[in-house]
Amino acid sequence: TFLQDLGMRLKVPQVTIATAIIFCHRFFIRQSHARNDRRTIATVCMFLAGKVEETPRPLKDVIVVSYEIIHKKDPATAQKIKQKEVYE
């Protein structure tokens, strides 16, 4: 899945990936799938899971890796996010 791929690329422990999955499930129990982009929510959950499990990764790294996964068929688009600094 997206979260497992994201976690492996970020080199976080399996427990951090599991925590991110739990966070996503809990979020979508109460919130609409139609109103919220699942990949954006998953990215945020991975970032927060890293903090909770004391295996944090910089926000920039989480966003860049997530963007690369989402746009893996278009490497040029994936490179654009590395040039932006709106998330710092």
Automatic annotation (TrEMBL):
Q: Which residues cross the membrane?
A: 12-29
What is an example of a Pfam family matching this protein? Cyclin_N
Identify the SMART domains for this entry.
Answer: CYCLIN (SM00385)
Q: Which residues form the Cyclin-like domain?
A: 1-88
Q: InterPro entries, per this entry?
A: Cyclin-like_dom (IPR013763), Cyclin-like_sf (IPR036915), Cyclin/Ssn8 (IPR043198), Cyclin_N (IPR006671)
Enumerate the Gene Ontology biological process terms: cell division; regulation of transcription by RNA polymerase II
* UniProt GO molecular function: cyclin-dependent protein serine/threonine kinase regulator activity
Per UniProt, which keywords does this protein have?
Cell cycle, Cell division, Cyclin, Membrane, Transmembrane, Transmembrane helix
Q: Which family does it belong to?
A: Belongs to the cyclin family.
Q: What name appears for this protein in its UniProt entry?
A: Cyclin-T1-4
Q: What is the lineage of its organism?
A: Eukaryota, Viridiplantae, Streptophyta, Embryophyta, Tracheophyta
